[in-house]
UniProtKB/TrEMBL annotation:
<keyword id="KW-0677">Repeat</keyword>
<dbReference type="InterPro" id="IPR051134">
    <property type="entry name" value="PPP_phosphatase"/>
</dbReference>
<keyword id="KW-0812">Transmembrane</keyword>
<keyword id="KW-0802">TPR repeat</keyword>
<dbReference type="GO" id="GO:0004722">
    <property type="term" value="F:protein serine/threonine phosphatase activity"/>
</dbReference>
<dbReference type="InterPro" id="IPR006186">
    <property type="entry name" value="Ser/Thr-sp_prot-phosphatase"/>
</dbReference>
<keyword id="KW-0479">Metal-binding</keyword>
<keyword id="KW-0378">Hydrolase</keyword>
<comment type="similarity">
    <text>Belongs to the PPP phosphatase family. PP-5 (PP-T) subfamily.</text>
</comment>
<dbReference type="InterPro" id="IPR041753">
    <property type="entry name" value="PP5_C"/>
</dbReference>
<keyword id="KW-0472">Membrane</keyword>
<feature type="repeat" description="TPR">
    <location>
        <begin position="91"/>
        <end position="124"/>
    </location>
</feature>
<feature type="transmembrane region" description="Helical">
    <location>
        <begin position="734"/>
        <end position="755"/>
    </location>
</feature>
<keyword id="KW-0464">Manganese</keyword>
<dbReference type="Pfam" id="PF00149">
    <property type="entry name" value="Metallophos"/>
</dbReference>
<dbReference type="InterPro" id="IPR004843">
    <property type="entry name" value="Calcineurin-like_PHP"/>
</dbReference>
<dbReference type="InterPro" id="IPR019734">
    <property type="entry name" value="TPR_rpt"/>
</dbReference>
């Protein structure tokens, strides 16, 4: 990493009188600073120097994390395994190794390590969630293998009757009638720029037509560029739609006079993968002999599930559209050959010598990428500066040296290889004395890498590569996989929610279950003061979690599982405290008169339920802020009326617990709301809940100000040694009004009402 390691160490201000352990600790602190600032390559280099001074499990685990951030999963796997060898009790080592195996699609191995972590830290929320997710994937894969052939076609494209799908007059987007036109594609990209969705009729139409085209294509596509003509090669774009449009601004839109080849990894990571892929597919259909697409390692089922594309498709369209994309990706060509001289593939060359162009042409590509072989190497391999081959730092494919490139080019009569697959500071890099070039076209990758993007221009007959670098352009502040308001009912999670409510009615009594919806805060807490009620309620909740873990992700599913954090505060993290403190609440009388004098919004709960129905059924959030503001006023009044009574009747610790539970519930709701994007701002009244303070007693107890108290729910302890990065600041947040600010029970009761009616 460093040309002068001595100079790099000098920056750490080491002292010769210090021991190797002390010097290692200093270097680690320096590495932590680089990691915190997002310079993962530099962090890894300094962790390496710290290891050279004094190797520890912590240092190897930290370097493993830096490798994970750089997507070097093979190196991350090796370091995490070394950390475990050095200290078998070091839990973060197992956690890092599980993450690396998950990224590599080795789910059974990941599940074993996650089980080790959960056994050691059963209350670590993040570990439990990842263990559950991994377990679900293992079960799904086992089921699919039991019923599937190698690649049994999952989609019958012949029965997709897209022409029968009506287009409402209210739809203001592009319409594809007759032959596909440049005007349609231009109107579609402009529509996408405004963050408007393509009608599902045209989405299906594009997918059916592109499938019919690609299934007739060979694995290796030959491209002819006439003398004097130019040709552009672009690398990874990873769902960065606005940067894709910037390429067309700089270099001209695709046309028969301005041909392009995009070299894989069109999707995942970026927030606009759907818009990106439909744009690329549309241009391919418009200019089939002047616009080319190669498959990348991210055009695969495993990567799409892990890095966002599948979730984005399901949010913006449906599960069935996600399945269609999987099928289409399996038919993408693996590589291209320009004028028989320039070989273009996404990853790189091969794990053994002697591979010919005919071997590539004869490779079966209509499948998910294998772990080895020609197809695997074309999608995953990377160049290295030294001769020979070494295992890939990614854990898949290989690293190949200059001698490998020379032999391949000479054997096949090729001038040089163009590949992508790796972030480069300037967007491109020359390797192996000009026999291999990397081009990467996603600037400021993942909105944090700070790299430039680039594209290559060739002109026949010389085909000399000329590079253009460019910087990232602004784009809407939309997190990856942000949900849209398209109707996407999740029947599986709906049935789980309905079962939850029916269980409450059966085990706790229907009258009591329904009456919870009308209780004020005091009465809700009094209900939980009953040990039998509390234990039964939490048992039913855990059954709901188990049921929900078997459902495929969807909008409603994500919303419920994220919002279940609220119940976790009651049934998981504060279970002992509630069991100890809450019994005294049974002695407290209701405060209905106080509430009536404080607020007129006694129908706030009903309003929240009504608004949830609008949101779930039609995406209408027009009244969300109003309903949530009223609900928050109701809660504030409940706190004013009830908490002083609790402090007087019970003790200040119990009152503190109630306030902290309320704050924690609202923190979870706010975080969910900001991520979901239903509204533009979090209501001011709801902010007051966070700042609510217990009135000062006449004789001051040892603890007075509950807001200053330490948080009840600890943050995950798995990242202690690697410095925490600052949480992103969200300025234009949003509120999901479906979660009642009053209590945990509304979480699923409201959903059940939706599914009943």
């Amino acid at each position: 990493m460093f040309d002068n390691e001595e100079a790099a160490l000098a920056m750490c201000d080491l002292n010769d009188s210090e021991s190797a352990v002390e010097q290692s600790e200093k270097i680690k602190d320096f590495a932590n600073t680089f990691f915190k600032n997002g310079h993962y390559g530099l962090a890894a280099a300094y962790y390496t120097m710290a290891i050279d001074h004094h190797p520890t499990a912590v240092l190897y685990a930290n370097r493993s994390m830096a490798h994970l951030r750089r997507e070097l999963y093979g190196s991350a796997l090796e370091d995490s395994s070394t950390a475990i060898e050095l200290d078998p009790t070091y839990i973060k080592g197992y956690y890092r190794r599980a993450a690396a195996n998950m990224a590599l699609g080795r789910y059974k191995k990941a599940l074993k390590d996650y089980a080790t972590v959960v056994k050691a830290r059963p209350k670590d929320k993040d570990a439990v969630a990842k263990h559950s997710e991994c377990s679900k994937i293992v079960k799904r894969i086992a089921f699919e293998r039991a019923i599937a052939t190698d690649h049994g076609k999952k989609v019958d494209f012949d029965v997709i009757a897209y022409d029968a799908i009506p287009v409402d007059d209210k739809y203001q987007g592009p319409r594809w009638e007759g032959d596909l036109s440049a005007e349609f594609v231009l109107e579609m990209t402009n529509h996408f720029k405004k963050q408007q969705a393509l009608h599902k009729k045209y989405a299906y139409k594009i997918l059916v037509h592109i499938y019919e085209f690609f299934k007739k294509q060979p694995t290796l596509v030959d491209i002819k560029v006439a003398d004097g003509d130019k040709f552009t090669i672009c690398g990874d774009v990873h769902g960065q739609f606005y940067d894709l449009l910037n390429i067309f601004e700089i270099n001209g839109r695709p046309s028969e006079e301005n041909p392009y080849l995009f070299n894989g990894d069109f999707v995942d990571r970026g927030s606009f993968s759907v818009e990106t892929i439909f744009t690329l597919f549309a241009y391919k259909l418009l200019y089939p002999n002047h616009f080319y697409l190669s498959r990348g390692n991210h055009e695969s089922d495993t990567m799409n599930k892990m890095y966002g594309f599948e979730g984005e498709v399901k949010h913006k369209f449906s599960d069935s559209v996600a399945v269609i994309f999987t099928e289409v990706f399996c038919h993408l060509p693996l590589c291209h050959l320009i004028n028989e001289k320039v070989f273009v593939c996404h990853g790189g060359l091969f794990n053994h010598d002697g591979v010919t162009l005919d071997d590539i042409r004869n490779t079966d590509r209509v499948r998910q990428p294998p772990d080895e072989g020609i197809m695997c190497d074309l999608l995953w391999s990377d160049p290295q500066p030294i001769d020979g081959r070494t295992p890939s730092k990614r854990g898949v494919g290989c690293q190949f040296g200059p001698d490998v490139s020379q032999k391949f080019c000479e054997k096949n009569g090729i001038s040089y290889v163009v590949r992508s697959h790796e972030v480069k500071p300037e967007g491109f890099e020359k390797h192996h004395d000009g026999r291999v070039y990397t081009v990467f076209s996603a600037p400021n990758y993942c909105d944090q890498m700070g790299n430039k993007g680039a594209f290559i221009r060739l002109q026949a007959p010389a085909l000399t590569p000329r590079f253009t670098s460019f910087s990232a352009v602004p784009h809407p502040d939309v997190p990856p996989m942000a949900p849209s308001t398209h109707d996407n009912p999740d029947t599986c999670i709906g049935h789980c929610a309905l079962s939850f409510v029916e269980s409450i009615g059966t085990q706790l009594g229907p009258e009591r279950a329904v009456s919870l919806l009308q209780l004020n805060y005091n009465d809700f807490l009094r209900a939980f003061s009953n040990t039998t009620f509390f234990e039964t309620f939490c048992g039913i909740y855990h059954n709901f979690q188990n049921c929900a873990s078997s459902c495929e992700p969807g909008y409603l599913h994500q919303m419920l599982m994220r919002s279940s954090e609220i119940i976790d505060h009651y049934c998981v993290y504060n279970r002992k405290a509630i069991a100890t403190k809450f019994p005294c609440l049974s002695r407290i009388a209701p405060s209905e008169d106080c509430l009536k004098s404080c607020t007129s919004h006694h129908s706030a709960v009903t309003s929240l339920i009504g608004n949830f129905r609008h949101l779930a059924m039609s995406g209408d959030t027009s009244q969300a802020e109003k309903y949530l503001e009223e609900g928050c006023e109701y809660v504030i009044c409940s706190l004013h009326c009830d908490v002083p009574t609790i402090a007087h009747t019970c003790d200040f610790d119990t009152a503190n617990l109630v306030i902290n539970l309320t704050r924690r519930s609202f923190d979870s709701m706010e975080s969910l709301s900001l991520d979901m994007g239903a509204l533009k701002k979090w209501p001011k009244m709801c902010e007051d809940i966070r700042t609510y303070r217990l009135p000062q007693p006449q004789t001051a107890p040892t603890q007075v100000e509950v807001i200053a108290a330490a948080p009840i729910v600890p943050t995950t302890p798995l990242a202690d040694d690697v410095p925490k990065q600052a949480a992103p600041v969200v300025q234009n947040g949003a509120v999901v009004p479906t979660l009642t600010p009053l209590t945990v029970y509304l979480l699923v009761l409201i959903v059940a009402i939706v599914w009943r009616y």
